[in-house]
Amino acid sequence: MPPTSLPPTASVGTKRERRKEARPGELLEAALDLFVEKGFAATRVDEVAARAGVSKGTLFLYFPSKEELFKAVVRQNIAGRFEEWRDELDSFVGTTSDLLRYCYQVWWERIGATKASGITKLMFSEAQNFPEITEFYQQEVILPGQALIRRIVERGIERGEFRPVPLDYIVHVVLAPMIFLMMWKHSVGACIPDSLGLRPELYIDAQIDNVLNGLLVRPDPSSPVPSPSHTFSAPPSRGS
């Protein structure tokens, strides 16, 4: 055996350590799959453990309850991204219209088009039955999301790009297309024939235009219409 080779026992030990380090991620991935497929109430922790290839006892070493497992899934896939998004907002160079377009597009790429978007449908369906996870979701997803959109609109107002608008309500106007797309992906779309299906990217473009047309500063209708920059001379009279 070459001197640089590890003894068989050491190799096995290394593999076990790597496997142990990977387990939380594997459990979270399995839990996300099952929560989206079956909902919170119908998902059992032994199913999650089996899909991740571990025992239920091993799962409880990392997550002491199904509620804590669900919270970890939400943090991993949604709530944990807000710091990153806030940093992107602070460093964004460009108009607020461009920032809002970027916000929609990035949200679709990172959340809407992924399996994590099914968490929204789960919450809509089961929020009233599970006050603990509902309160958690409000604090870690809904309120930070609303605050982020509010900051974007405030940026536009402060820069003179957007009209003064009631922020408490315009936040919901901006969020509504995102919520609709998540519900379409995981619920409504299943009821619509394929021939009538929508393309999410085109829908987002249309909604961005609608939102911006409502937000952008408009010309003051009471202002006088500027005179044309060119004038016309009267044609010369005959015989002149």
Report on this model:
The chain is mainly α and 240 residues long. It has 2 domains: 13-65, Homeodomain-like (Arc Repressor Mutant, subunit A, Orthogonal Bundle); 78-215, Tetracycline Repressor, domain 2, CATH 1.10.357. Helices cover 66% and strands 0% of the residues. It is built from 10 helices and no strands. The chain has helices at residues 8-38, 45-52, 56-62, 66-77, 82-91, 96-112, 118-126, 131-158, 167-186, 200-215. Keywords: DNA-binding, Transcription, Transcription regulation. This is TetR/AcrR family transcriptional regulator. Residues 230-240 have a biased composition (Polar residues).
CATH topology of the largest domain: Tetracycline Repressor, domain 2
Shape: elongated
Oligomer: single chain
Q: Provide a count of the helices.
A: 10
How many strands appear in the DSSP assignment? Answer: 0
Mean pLDDT equals: 85
- In helices, the fraction of residues equals 55-70%
Largest sheet: none
List key phrases describing it.
single chain; 240 residues; mainly alpha; Arc Repressor Mutant, subunit A; Tetracycline Repressor, domain 2; 10 helices; elongated; disordered C terminus; DNA-binding; Homeodomain-like_sf; TetR_C; transcription; HTH_TetR
